[in-house]
Please model this.
Amino acid sequence: MENKKDIIYSTLHKYFGYSTFYPLQEDIIRWVLERKDLFVLMPTGGGKSLCYQLPALLFDGITVVVSPLIALMKDQVDGLTENGIPATFINSSLRSDEIVTRKRELSEGKIKILYIAPERLAMSEFLGFLQKLNVSLFAIDESHCISEWGHDFRPEYRQLSMLKEKFPNTPIMGLTATATPSVQKDIIEQLKLTDYRVFTASFNRKNLYYQIMPKDNPYHQILCFLKERKKESGIIYCQGRKTVEHLAESLQEDGYRALPYHAGLSAEMRTENQERFIREDVEIIVATIAFGMGIDKPNIRYVIHHDLPKSIEGYYQETGRAGRDGLKSDCILLFSYADKMKIEYFIRRKEDEKEKEVAYKQLRELVSYCESNVCRRRILLDYFGEKFSENNCRNCDLCLNPKEQFDGTVVAQKLLSCVYRVGECFGMHYVIDVLLGSKNQKVLQNGHTTLTTYGIGKEYSKPQWLAFSRELIQSGYLSLEGEYPVLKLSKQSREVLLGRKKVFLTKPEEKPSFSASKEDANYDQALFERLRELRKTVADRESMPPYIIFHDTSLKEMSTRYPQTASDLEKISGVGELKLRKYGALFLKEISDYCRQYAIAPKQEIFGKQAFAEKQTRAPTIYTTLELCKNNLSLLEIARKRGLATSTISTHLEKLILAGENVSLDKFVDPGKRQHIRAAIEKSGMEALSPVKEALGEGYSYDEIKLVRAEMMYSAMKNAE
Ligand code: ADP
Ligand code: ZN
Model:
């Protein structure tokens, strides 16, 4: 007979197509199999469903899953059925004869997992029916809905308190992604868990990249971001309905498939738009926070906050909808002080003092998150009481591009004196226009062209001046006041203007950019596109969301390993027994056609046997280069393997060298040439490459010069320390 460990693993592989567990899943499953109560805290994407779905297969009886999201039940059941797991749901969307049929199947023991909404348990007839069945486990999904302190209280959930009484011998499992301790405590009490254990996973979403961008020209910024992600799914959150409508429309005009979603639309419209997003008929949903609860779509590749979210908790939940499948995804927030003031204005109008206070506190926390100079992830986790001990998370804007400071006293003096000269009655944009010597109507009308500060700031661009202004506000040298915010000086600014105080500012970036993860593409993108199309065709035919056929993780892994046979395909994560039988041949044919067409030998996989998804999430792009570099490959070979330009690879290497990683140049630059390059750099200086290249002439590449320069810079840095 198989022992327990073997059974758990063989079930995992057979039905779900996975060979390893996510953190805590195995411990949780073992505990569930002991038939004891438990409470599971895991972030979105942590893999909660498997924690009851797998045990359900090993129990004699039925596992009842309580979920508030009726609209989602069908997809969940379809997903299980596709994996060969007998499941069904009973809710108000069904006709009574359908309910009768399903109940019969349940009584006959044909079903392992039953999904219901909480209100069904209030029906005594249904309760009686359940009591006659053999229920092995109650899994209460989204269990924070039971708590009035949670963000999503649902009165129907209160009924669940009677489960323990009515089914004293059936274990209960509460699950939630809500991280606040008071809510957690409440859930445990309400569900009356006994002799239970709490399983808390880390709330660190390693695959999510966090970036805060100053909001200068939001539509343009969003277009820039989307340009590289035309085929990826994403959500853009806005504060108001008007912005949602407007933005969705503009995006459509610019050729993007985008739909709006907000509480002002009819219920049918909302359902339809959500459905079209999930089925991948459109890539983008522009929405208010009304959208999101119960979005199971695992491949949302980005979440953009066009406006400030309400609180850190809200921001964490909203960004959390990205990257459920564990693949890299981007969370971008466009931050402006004007937005902050808008929110303050709304808070001021609130009547309830307590509510006001809470709202102010939430806003303060959020703004300080945006303004921070330390790792975003650290602040988020800290907020939920989790310690993040790494110095560098390698996946937030601040860790990837640490801010550099410079003596900005003169810059500050220019700006502050211009604020003074215009009489402290103008906004940020206006003051900067004066500094830049703008000829705009308002400046001319006000006669500000004669000011001594007119046109003295031309060495920086407008966005750069905006960034300086923000920083000076943040550090208290300036403030924005009034309903149409104008810049005012503070006591401290006097000291700077009188030359008694130095100011340090962040060095401006050449061009603020999304230093996100887009180039981290270690798979064959052309093949991935083909498989994605095939998946969409199959999904439409079966009238199911594409992710139920295969996840992106599976398709990307196929596009890395080029499986040729059924047994190759079975090794791909997410390909279980039934899926292999149903779709294996179709996908294998597509892959082998592709390989033939492009003469690809199937053994060209990059990562050997290591888990593909793991690599995707853990390794920021430059570290992938480092790894290949250790394999003694040439620049060109690395570039080919990664599908990137050699100049990109040499830039990676440059960063690695400067970060103190041990990169040997032997493979990249001939030692004899190195001598010459060094000499040329010593003559022309380190600032620019082209004078060095010119001095050296043909036979030397920019890549080579860049690498030697990096080595020289690093040793200069070391010596200076
Ligand atoms: P949650 O409900 O906690 O947000 P899900 O149950 O939806 O998370 O799981 C998130 C994603 O991770 C899903 O796409 C799921 O298929 C996948 N997943 C879960 N467990 C594993 C595992 N052990 N190995 C690989 N993928 C997994
Ligand atoms: Zn970080």
About this structure: The chain has five domains: 4-200, 208-396, 405-506, 520-603, 621-721. Confidence is low (pLDDT under 50) at residues 604-619. The domain at 621-721 is CATH 1.10.10.1390 (Arc Repressor Mutant, subunit A). The two ends are 65 Å apart (CA to CA).
